[in-house]
Amino acid sequence: MTTILASSSPRKRDPQPCLLTDRFGRRLDYLRLAVTARCNLNCRYCRPKRGDWIVAPDALQDEDIVRLARILRQLGVRKVRITGGEPLVRPGIGQLLLSLRTASGIPELYLTTNGIRLNQHLPELQAAAVDGVNVSLDTLRPDRYEWITGFAGLGRVWEGIEHAVEAGLRVKLNVVVQGGVNDDEIADFCRLTRAWPFCVRFIELMPMGPAWRANTAPVSAAEILSRIEGEFGPLSALPNEEGSTARTYRISGHAGTIGVIAAHSRTFCSQCNRLRITPDGQLRLCLYQPGGLDLRSFLRRGLDDEAIAREIQLAVRNKPRDGHAAEKQSRQASQEPMILVGG
What we know:
The chain has 343 residues and is of the alpha/beta class. It has a single domain (18-340), classed as Aldolase class I (TIM Barrel, Alpha-Beta Barrel), CATH 3.20.20. It is built from eleven helices and 14 strands. The chain has helices at residues 62-74, 93-103, 118-127, 142-149, 154-166, 186-192, 209-213, 221-232, 295-301, 305-316, 323-329, and strands spanning 3-4, 30-34, 79-83, 108-113, 132-136, 170-179, 199-204, 217-218, 236-238, 246-250, 257-261, 274-277, 282-284, 293-294. Strands 1, 2, 3, 4, 5, 6, 7, 8, 9, 10, 11, 12, 13 and 14 form a 14-stranded mixed sheet that branches. Strand 12 (274-277) and strand 13 form a beta hairpin. The longest helix is centred in the first third of the chain and has 13 residues, at 62-74. It is globular.
Protein backbone atom coordinates (compact mmCIF):
# COMPACT_ATOMS: atom_id res chain seq x y z
CA MET A 1 0.00 0.00 0.00
CA THR A 2 1.39 3.40 -1.04
CA THR A 3 1.63 6.11 1.61
CA ILE A 4 1.09 9.76 0.67
CA LEU A 5 3.53 12.15 2.32
CA ALA A 6 3.13 15.90 2.66
CA SER A 7 5.25 18.11 0.44
CA SER A 8 8.29 19.55 2.21
CA SER A 9 8.83 22.44 -0.23
CA PRO A 10 5.58 23.88 -1.64
CA ARG A 11 6.01 26.19 -4.61
CA LYS A 12 5.85 29.89 -3.79
CA ARG A 13 3.02 31.85 -5.35
CA ASP A 14 4.15 33.78 -8.45
CA PRO A 15 2.87 37.38 -8.44
CA GLN A 16 3.06 37.49 -12.25
CA PRO A 17 -0.23 36.20 -13.75
CA CYS A 18 0.08 33.61 -16.51
CA LEU A 19 -1.24 34.99 -19.81
CA LEU A 20 -0.45 31.84 -21.77
CA THR A 21 -3.46 29.53 -21.72
CA ASP A 22 -4.40 26.93 -24.33
CA ARG A 23 -7.92 25.94 -25.38
CA PHE A 24 -7.92 23.13 -22.80
CA GLY A 25 -7.39 25.57 -19.94
CA ARG A 26 -3.76 24.64 -19.27
CA ARG A 27 -1.50 27.46 -18.06
CA LEU A 28 1.84 27.29 -19.89
CA ASP A 29 4.35 28.71 -17.42
CA TYR A 30 7.38 26.46 -17.96
CA LEU A 31 9.89 26.99 -20.80
CA ARG A 32 12.49 24.47 -21.91
CA LEU A 33 15.05 26.60 -23.74
CA ALA A 34 17.61 24.80 -25.94
CA VAL A 35 20.68 26.98 -26.39
CA THR A 36 22.65 24.66 -28.68
CA ALA A 37 22.30 21.51 -30.77
CA ARG A 38 25.93 20.61 -30.13
CA CYS A 39 26.89 17.79 -27.80
CA ASN A 40 30.17 16.30 -26.65
CA LEU A 41 28.76 12.76 -26.41
CA ASN A 42 27.47 10.29 -28.98
CA CYS A 43 24.70 8.51 -27.09
CA ARG A 44 23.31 5.68 -29.17
CA TYR A 45 19.64 6.53 -28.73
CA CYS A 46 20.10 10.25 -29.44
CA ARG A 47 22.50 10.77 -32.33
CA PRO A 48 21.15 10.49 -35.89
CA LYS A 49 24.57 9.08 -36.87
CA ARG A 50 27.40 8.25 -34.54
CA GLY A 51 30.33 10.61 -34.78
CA ASP A 52 28.34 13.51 -36.29
CA TRP A 53 28.20 16.93 -34.66
CA ILE A 54 24.87 18.60 -35.25
CA VAL A 55 24.97 22.37 -35.53
CA ALA A 56 21.80 24.43 -35.87
CA PRO A 57 22.34 26.69 -38.91
CA ASP A 58 20.47 29.66 -37.42
CA ALA A 59 21.32 29.53 -33.72
CA LEU A 60 20.00 32.34 -31.55
CA GLN A 61 22.43 34.90 -30.16
CA ASP A 62 22.67 35.54 -26.43
CA GLU A 63 20.71 38.78 -26.71
CA ASP A 64 17.95 36.93 -28.63
CA ILE A 65 17.67 34.30 -25.93
CA VAL A 66 17.53 36.83 -23.11
CA ARG A 67 14.96 38.93 -24.96
CA LEU A 68 12.67 35.95 -25.61
CA ALA A 69 12.96 34.88 -21.98
CA ARG A 70 12.04 38.39 -20.88
CA ILE A 71 8.99 38.44 -23.18
CA LEU A 72 7.86 35.05 -21.91
CA ARG A 73 8.36 36.15 -18.32
CA GLN A 74 6.03 39.08 -18.98
CA LEU A 75 3.50 36.52 -20.24
CA GLY A 76 3.75 34.57 -16.99
CA VAL A 77 6.50 31.99 -17.53
CA ARG A 78 7.94 31.31 -14.07
CA LYS A 79 10.45 28.56 -14.78
CA VAL A 80 13.12 28.15 -17.45
CA ARG A 81 15.19 25.03 -17.99
CA ILE A 82 18.29 25.42 -20.17
CA THR A 83 18.82 22.40 -22.42
CA GLY A 84 20.63 21.38 -25.60
CA GLY A 85 22.31 19.40 -27.11
CA GLU A 86 24.66 19.88 -24.23
CA PRO A 87 24.26 23.47 -22.98
CA LEU A 88 27.66 23.58 -21.28
CA VAL A 89 29.46 23.34 -24.65
CA ARG A 90 27.95 26.66 -25.77
CA PRO A 91 30.67 29.36 -25.68
CA GLY A 92 29.97 31.92 -22.96
CA ILE A 93 27.30 29.80 -21.26
CA GLY A 94 28.16 31.24 -17.84
CA GLN A 95 27.53 34.82 -18.96
CA LEU A 96 24.32 33.76 -20.72
CA LEU A 97 23.01 32.14 -17.54
CA LEU A 98 23.90 35.24 -15.54
CA SER A 99 22.13 37.47 -18.07
CA LEU A 100 19.05 35.27 -17.98
CA ARG A 101 18.96 35.50 -14.21
CA THR A 102 19.49 39.25 -13.99
CA ALA A 103 17.82 40.61 -17.15
CA SER A 104 14.81 38.36 -17.74
CA GLY A 105 13.34 38.27 -14.25
CA ILE A 106 12.70 34.52 -14.42
CA PRO A 107 12.17 33.29 -10.81
CA GLU A 108 13.36 29.71 -11.37
CA LEU A 109 16.36 28.78 -13.52
CA TYR A 110 17.48 25.19 -14.07
CA LEU A 111 19.84 23.35 -16.40
CA THR A 112 19.97 19.86 -17.89
CA THR A 113 23.43 18.48 -18.67
CA ASN A 114 25.25 15.24 -19.40
CA GLY A 115 27.60 16.21 -16.58
CA ILE A 116 30.91 16.03 -18.45
CA ARG A 117 31.59 19.74 -17.92
CA LEU A 118 29.47 20.21 -14.80
CA ASN A 119 32.35 20.46 -12.35
CA GLN A 120 34.22 22.86 -14.64
CA HIS A 121 31.23 25.23 -14.92
CA LEU A 122 29.89 24.89 -11.38
CA PRO A 123 31.24 28.29 -10.23
CA GLU A 124 29.39 29.95 -13.13
CA LEU A 125 26.17 28.13 -12.26
CA GLN A 126 26.52 29.33 -8.68
CA ALA A 127 27.24 32.90 -9.82
CA ALA A 128 24.02 32.84 -11.88
CA ALA A 129 22.12 31.38 -8.89
CA VAL A 130 20.97 28.39 -10.94
CA ASP A 131 18.46 26.57 -8.77
CA GLY A 132 19.26 23.03 -9.83
CA VAL A 133 20.65 20.64 -12.43
CA ASN A 134 19.34 17.49 -14.04
CA VAL A 135 22.16 15.15 -15.02
CA SER A 136 21.52 12.59 -17.75
CA LEU A 137 23.17 9.36 -16.60
CA ASP A 138 22.04 5.98 -17.90
CA THR A 139 24.53 3.68 -16.20
CA LEU A 140 26.83 3.45 -13.18
CA ARG A 141 29.27 1.09 -14.94
CA PRO A 142 32.31 2.69 -16.63
CA ASP A 143 32.51 0.21 -19.51
CA ARG A 144 28.79 0.47 -20.23
CA TYR A 145 28.94 4.25 -20.00
CA GLU A 146 31.60 4.32 -22.69
CA TRP A 147 29.56 1.94 -24.88
CA ILE A 148 26.43 4.07 -24.58
CA THR A 149 28.03 7.51 -24.94
CA GLY A 150 31.22 6.86 -26.91
CA PHE A 151 33.25 8.53 -24.17
CA ALA A 152 35.09 7.22 -21.09
CA GLY A 153 33.84 9.95 -18.77
CA LEU A 154 31.80 8.42 -15.96
CA GLY A 155 34.30 9.55 -13.31
CA ARG A 156 34.08 13.16 -14.47
CA VAL A 157 30.28 13.05 -14.41
CA TRP A 158 30.16 11.65 -10.89
CA GLU A 159 32.67 14.25 -9.65
CA GLY A 160 30.39 16.97 -10.99
CA ILE A 161 27.35 15.43 -9.30
CA GLU A 162 29.11 15.23 -5.95
CA HIS A 163 30.27 18.84 -6.10
CA ALA A 164 26.85 20.08 -7.25
CA VAL A 165 25.23 18.41 -4.24
CA GLU A 166 27.87 19.88 -1.93
CA ALA A 167 27.22 23.32 -3.45
CA GLY A 168 23.57 23.07 -2.49
CA LEU A 169 22.09 22.73 -5.96
CA ARG A 170 18.93 20.68 -6.38
CA VAL A 171 20.18 17.61 -8.28
CA LYS A 172 18.22 15.04 -10.25
CA LEU A 173 19.61 12.10 -12.21
CA ASN A 174 17.74 11.24 -15.42
CA VAL A 175 17.97 7.57 -16.40
CA VAL A 176 16.48 6.47 -19.75
CA VAL A 177 15.62 2.82 -19.18
CA GLN A 178 16.18 0.45 -22.09
CA GLY A 179 15.55 -3.27 -22.02
CA GLY A 180 18.70 -5.31 -22.48
CA VAL A 181 20.87 -2.21 -22.13
CA ASN A 182 20.60 -0.82 -18.60
CA ASP A 183 17.36 -2.12 -17.06
CA ASP A 184 19.44 -4.40 -14.84
CA GLU A 185 20.73 -1.30 -13.00
CA ILE A 186 17.38 0.02 -11.74
CA ALA A 187 18.01 -1.25 -8.20
CA ASP A 188 21.59 0.08 -8.25
CA PHE A 189 20.34 3.58 -9.02
CA CYS A 190 17.72 3.29 -6.29
CA ARG A 191 20.40 2.40 -3.75
CA LEU A 192 22.11 5.73 -4.44
CA THR A 193 19.19 7.49 -2.75
CA ARG A 194 19.93 5.74 0.55
CA ALA A 195 22.68 8.26 1.29
CA TRP A 196 22.42 10.89 -1.44
CA PRO A 197 19.66 13.53 -1.15
CA PHE A 198 18.97 13.76 -4.87
CA CYS A 199 16.14 12.37 -6.99
CA VAL A 200 16.79 9.51 -9.41
CA ARG A 201 14.22 9.63 -12.22
CA PHE A 202 13.61 6.64 -14.45
CA ILE A 203 12.32 7.61 -17.90
CA GLU A 204 10.54 5.51 -20.50
CA LEU A 205 12.34 5.56 -23.85
CA MET A 206 10.61 8.05 -26.16
CA PRO A 207 9.51 7.05 -29.67
CA MET A 208 11.94 9.48 -31.28
CA GLY A 209 15.21 9.28 -33.13
CA PRO A 210 17.67 6.44 -33.78
CA ALA A 211 16.89 4.23 -30.79
CA TRP A 212 13.23 3.84 -31.69
CA ARG A 213 14.00 3.10 -35.32
CA ALA A 214 16.53 0.53 -34.14
CA ASN A 215 13.79 -1.14 -32.05
CA THR A 216 15.56 -0.65 -28.74
CA ALA A 217 13.30 -2.30 -26.18
CA PRO A 218 11.33 0.19 -24.03
CA VAL A 219 10.51 -0.60 -20.42
CA SER A 220 7.18 0.80 -19.22
CA ALA A 221 6.79 3.09 -16.22
CA ALA A 222 4.52 0.48 -14.61
CA GLU A 223 7.16 -2.20 -14.98
CA ILE A 224 9.89 0.08 -13.61
CA LEU A 225 7.79 0.83 -10.55
CA SER A 226 6.93 -2.84 -10.09
CA ARG A 227 10.60 -3.81 -10.15
CA ILE A 228 11.49 -1.14 -7.57
CA GLU A 229 8.74 -2.26 -5.20
CA GLY A 230 9.75 -5.88 -5.71
CA GLU A 231 13.27 -5.02 -4.56
CA PHE A 232 12.59 -2.43 -1.84
CA GLY A 233 8.99 -2.98 -0.75
CA PRO A 234 6.10 -0.48 -0.70
CA LEU A 235 7.03 3.09 -1.61
CA SER A 236 5.77 6.35 -0.11
CA ALA A 237 4.25 8.55 -2.82
CA LEU A 238 5.12 12.24 -2.67
CA PRO A 239 2.94 15.10 -3.96
CA ASN A 240 4.03 16.31 -7.37
CA GLU A 241 4.58 19.88 -8.45
CA GLU A 242 1.87 21.19 -10.77
CA GLY A 243 2.63 20.12 -14.34
CA SER A 244 5.30 17.60 -13.32
CA THR A 245 5.83 14.68 -15.70
CA ALA A 246 7.23 12.50 -12.90
CA ARG A 247 5.52 10.51 -10.20
CA THR A 248 7.79 10.76 -7.18
CA TYR A 249 8.33 8.29 -4.34
CA ARG A 250 10.59 7.65 -1.37
CA ILE A 251 12.03 4.31 -0.30
CA SER A 252 11.73 3.83 3.44
CA GLY A 253 14.83 5.08 5.23
CA HIS A 254 16.37 6.72 2.13
CA ALA A 255 17.53 10.34 2.03
CA GLY A 256 16.74 10.85 -1.63
CA THR A 257 13.72 10.14 -3.80
CA ILE A 258 12.70 8.12 -6.87
CA GLY A 259 10.84 9.47 -9.89
CA VAL A 260 9.17 7.56 -12.74
CA ILE A 261 8.34 9.37 -16.00
CA ALA A 262 5.94 7.82 -18.51
CA ALA A 263 7.58 9.56 -21.48
CA HIS A 264 6.27 7.00 -24.01
CA SER A 265 2.81 6.23 -22.63
CA ARG A 266 2.40 9.95 -21.81
CA THR A 267 -0.09 9.73 -18.97
CA PHE A 268 0.73 13.31 -17.88
CA CYS A 269 -0.33 15.29 -20.97
CA SER A 270 -3.53 16.65 -19.43
CA GLN A 271 -1.34 18.53 -16.90
CA CYS A 272 1.30 19.73 -19.39
CA ASN A 273 2.50 23.29 -18.77
CA ARG A 274 5.49 23.26 -21.13
CA LEU A 275 6.71 25.32 -24.03
CA ARG A 276 9.95 24.65 -25.91
CA ILE A 277 12.28 26.82 -27.92
CA THR A 278 14.58 24.85 -30.20
CA PRO A 279 18.20 25.82 -30.90
CA ASP A 280 17.16 27.52 -34.15
CA GLY A 281 14.42 29.57 -32.52
CA GLN A 282 11.25 27.56 -33.15
CA LEU A 283 8.57 27.70 -30.46
CA ARG A 284 7.35 24.15 -30.02
CA LEU A 285 4.08 23.51 -28.20
CA CYS A 286 4.61 19.75 -27.85
CA LEU A 287 7.66 17.54 -28.04
CA TYR A 288 5.89 15.36 -30.60
CA GLN A 289 4.56 18.16 -32.81
CA PRO A 290 6.71 19.01 -35.85
CA GLY A 291 7.33 22.55 -36.97
CA GLY A 292 6.68 25.53 -34.74
CA LEU A 293 6.38 29.29 -34.54
CA ASP A 294 9.49 30.89 -36.03
CA LEU A 295 10.52 33.30 -33.27
CA ARG A 296 13.88 33.96 -34.88
CA SER A 297 12.23 35.43 -37.95
CA PHE A 298 10.25 37.81 -35.73
CA LEU A 299 13.47 38.99 -34.11
CA ARG A 300 15.22 39.50 -37.44
CA ARG A 301 12.24 41.33 -38.93
CA GLY A 302 12.34 43.84 -36.11
CA LEU A 303 9.02 43.05 -34.41
CA ASP A 304 8.73 44.72 -31.01
CA ASP A 305 8.16 42.80 -27.78
CA GLU A 306 4.41 43.38 -27.75
CA ALA A 307 3.98 42.05 -31.29
CA ILE A 308 6.05 38.93 -30.52
CA ALA A 309 4.05 38.39 -27.32
CA ARG A 310 0.79 38.53 -29.29
CA GLU A 311 2.08 35.96 -31.79
CA ILE A 312 3.06 33.64 -28.95
CA GLN A 313 -0.33 34.01 -27.26
CA LEU A 314 -2.11 33.16 -30.51
CA ALA A 315 0.13 30.15 -31.11
CA VAL A 316 -0.31 28.56 -27.70
CA ARG A 317 -4.06 28.33 -28.21
CA ASN A 318 -3.28 25.50 -30.64
CA LYS A 319 -1.23 23.37 -28.27
CA PRO A 320 -2.24 19.73 -28.99
CA ARG A 321 -4.44 17.94 -26.47
CA ASP A 322 -1.67 15.39 -25.92
CA GLY A 323 1.44 13.88 -27.48
CA HIS A 324 -0.54 11.10 -29.13
CA ALA A 325 -2.73 13.64 -30.95
CA ALA A 326 0.35 15.60 -32.04
CA GLU A 327 1.97 12.44 -33.37
CA LYS A 328 -1.07 11.64 -35.49
CA GLN A 329 -0.77 14.99 -37.26
CA SER A 330 2.58 14.00 -38.75
CA ARG A 331 5.13 11.22 -38.51
CA GLN A 332 8.01 13.71 -38.67
CA ALA A 333 8.38 13.87 -34.91
CA SER A 334 9.44 10.24 -34.64
CA GLN A 335 12.20 10.91 -37.16
CA GLU A 336 13.71 13.83 -35.29
CA PRO A 337 16.63 13.14 -32.96
CA MET A 338 16.15 14.63 -29.52
CA ILE A 339 19.29 16.71 -29.95
CA LEU A 340 17.49 18.92 -32.50
CA VAL A 341 14.34 19.37 -30.42
CA GLY A 342 15.78 20.31 -27.05
CA GLY A 343 14.27 17.60 -24.86
